[in-house]
């Protein structure tokens, strides 16, 4: 089966058949030695093998998020292309579009050099958003963020490992912008750390030991005392649900991750939210 056949198939498939196709695509990404891959010492976007993590999330975007080959995608915090590279094998060459933004110039430069020339429907842009860890000299406050795209421009927005590094007031701004940018029916795929009673008390005894969150005052934030303040941010259960609603988005999936010590096929918690506005 060719990648083009997978992308362009228009007739509905049975669940087992579709799952076989997604698994085939993920395996093809892992085996494709021609896909660009940065040097290990230049990857600043988190733990794990660059290609394996990208292939895993490609599966999540399709299975959980309902991503379609013809989608117009915005990847907020695209880093050095960990999500973009596998998406090159799924998004339609002519109809699909990808826009990646990040405050780190090195990641954007790498993507422009190694991804865009082969995949011209993939564009990357540096947005100089200030962040204490990743871009401390940035000129744009996260509290006053205005993303450089027109209203209702995107079908699918990705925020993987972004909310996990933001204070709550900036989370509200980001989600408001996403609500503006998504077309009606468009979706947000977002990962987070939701600190519910199970996670907070480590009831299973198997919570990731690196994430011994402690509440910051009255909440809704939780931080890890041994780490820089924005290195890992958790939120009270219910905070992100409410923030999505304020932005005009409705959570259609809330899937808790394995970091809290319970079985899951993803590490962080996952929200899929839909823009159900009129588009006016």
Shape from CA axes? globular
Order of H and E elements: HHHEHEHEEHEEHEEEHEE
Q: What fold name stands as the CATH topology?
A: Rossmann fold
Q: From the helix content, strand content and strand pairing, which structural class follows? A: alpha/beta
CATH superfamily grouping: Vaccinia Virus protein VP39
Mean pLDDT rating: 91
| Radius of gyration over C-alpha positions, nearest whole angstrom | 18 Å
Strand arrangement in the largest pleated sheet:
3-2-1-4-5-11-10
Q: Report the biggest beta sheet as strand number plus sense, adding barrel if it closes.
A: 7 strands, mixed
Oligomer: single chain
Number of domains: 1
Pfam family, one: Methyltransf_11
Domain Methyltransferase type: 74-189
GO molecular function: S-adenosylmethionine-dependent methyltransferase activity
Protein name: Methyltransferase domain-containing protein
